[in-house]
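Deliverable D4.2, example record:
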Amino acid sequence: MIEQVMKEVYEENLNPEVACDRVRDEVTAKKFQEIMNDTLENLSSRELNMGLVKDYNAEAKLRRLVPEVLRDFFISATDVVFDNPVKQKKEGWSWKTPNSVYNLRGQLKPLGDLGREYKAFSFHKEDLDERPHLEWVTPGHPLYEGVRRVTKKQGEGDLAKGAKFIDPSAQDPYWLQIFRYRLEDGNGDSIDEQLIVVKVEERTGNISLKPASLFLDIVPSKSRDPVPRLPRDVALLTTETVGIALEEICEKQSMERGEKAAKVKSHVQTSLNALIRKENIKFERFERDSDKHKCIERVFDFEQRLDRREKHLDRQGRVVIAQNIPIALAFVEPMEIDTHNLPEGRTMPKQNKEVEEAAVDYVRNIELAKPEVHEVKSREADGVGYDLETWDAHGNILRFIEVKGKTTEHDVIITPNEWKVAERLRDDYWLYVVSNPLSEPVMRVIQDPWAKLEVETETKIMRHFLGMEQIKNEAE
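Output generated by the structure prediction step:
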């Protein structure tokens, strides 16, 4: 009963004061003692997952950014790697598992049983609310993991050779060196395994870290020329740069995990010490040696368990670099624009970092002036498809904001990644277009631009154009 009441309070379906009254009215002293004993036993024996401590409100919204990327990878892989494209149906997707994936069913068994055919599945968990017969295919599902592993293995040779890309927003060429890293805790358990990208500008030699999502806004080049290699001294610097960044990540995660481990250890100590005290009290009351001997054995067991758990939790709080290796190199060139062949009425805006930064600063100040906004977080360097997040004082995300700065009436360019995120977030996604941010700013704001604006897509290299006239018409 208490468990159900706590669940209803957590889901905000029950007022805490009403919950207290219900517990007082319906739980007897005997029942409360039984619950307390069960809780102490459970705390003393269970392995607690520190990773469950999360900001669920923020996580729920941020998870919505992922499915399109997962879907696009899976669909592309079935076509390019397996030459067996998935089929889109009225409800979901269907695919017959190729032998190269099905042969991994033994390795994938811990994730679940791999089927020979999937007749209806989706990459979006929300689809299952209305169509529960769909299967949710996502990282961790045996089908998705099988496709990922086969794709990775077949692509290792190409990764070693490198690849060339086109960046429509770049002014100068640059390299992207991709590293794979893995972090472990002091028990040797993997806690994080990701890719990290180092950008090296060819002209200046500047080195900076970028998220792997950077690849969502560049496109493969048709050039068959070999990829220029990184100078040896620069390659050494990129490795050192990644190492320093990972050390900082380890330090930060060690602090966070150490705090969580200390909290968990406190609960474990409380429960086990309470059980030890109970056995000591029993020892004093018992008269028979056999009963006293059982108490001694129980106390010894609890003390041993407490020692093991404390050491294990201490090691869980430590984070070390277990792997850090370069796995691929890309060379990215600016797009050559043929201004003579632009569509009628189309002009080509130029990137201006100063204008963009001024526009973002202007929007940040506007948002911070709102009473409901407690904090504005920058996500410009994270490649998530927008520039800013606004948060209230309770840890809730209010808006995902993409900012465009302009000094002319040119069309607004929005990248494929930004447009996909706008499609996914809908009402939570806001487009702020700031004209003349360096002098007399004029801001136009559009909520859910994916629904309100029509894009013109350039097919030579994927990017979208939003006409300024419709932005003016739709702005709030």
